[in-house]
Design goal:
eight-stranded mixed sheet; globular
């Protein structure tokens, strides 16, 4: 699905990318591996936002949109609210008490919603997106990979009912560079 996302975004992307990301160093700093679709996306996209609403937590991003800068803070927030959280997921093999240690942030919206990878399996390419609506104790697993989630967002809209009007000429992606 990552190819479909990149094809959708291609007309507005700077070509070629002028950075090389040392994924081994990034993963060592974070202490966990990252999904292949995320790495491909970051290899092709600069830090930025989708439809002027959804930021990818990019390793090259500035303060608010940086994977390295925000991961520890967002994980700490999940652990602080874990005892009042409602977990919605279809992974029967998971103990809800273990979920806070399986969430890694990857997306954030301009209204405070956060998307996390749910690391329910060892293989990062099988991780699905779990969303938390800002200021809400509910976390919902959307059962899709990051690239599937982004494709759906770009073609169908945001799952929490935020309407992005078609009549606004919002680009699919805007670079922060």
């Amino acid at each position: 699905m990552i190819e479909e996302v990149l094809t959708l975004l291609a007309p507005g992307l700077p070509r070629p990318s002028f950075w090389n990301i040392d994924w081994s160093a990034i993963e060592a700093e974070l202490g966990h591996r990252l999904p292949t679709d995320y790495k491909r996306l970051c290899d092709h996209l600069p830090p930025g936002r989708f439809r002027d609403f959804l930021w990818l937590q990019h390793p090259l991003g500035a303060l608010g949109g940086s994977l390295l800068g925000r991961e520890a803070e967002l994980i700490a927030t999940v652990r602080e609210v874990a005892d009042i959280t409602v977990w919605e997921h279809g992974h029967e093999h998971l103990d809800d008490a273990a979920l806070p240690g399986m969430l890694y942030p990857c997306l954030i919206t301009d209204n405070g919603d956060t998307g996390y990878w749910l690391a329910a399996r060892d293989d990062p390419d099988s991780w699905t997106i779990m969303l938390n609506k800002g200021r809400d104790p509910e976390f919902s697993d959307h059962g899709t990979t990051l690239s599937e989630f982004l494709y759906d967002f770009l073609t169908e809209g945001y799952p929490f009912g935020v309407t992005l009007p078609d009549d606004l000429d919002l680009p699919l992606f805007t670079s922060d560079f």
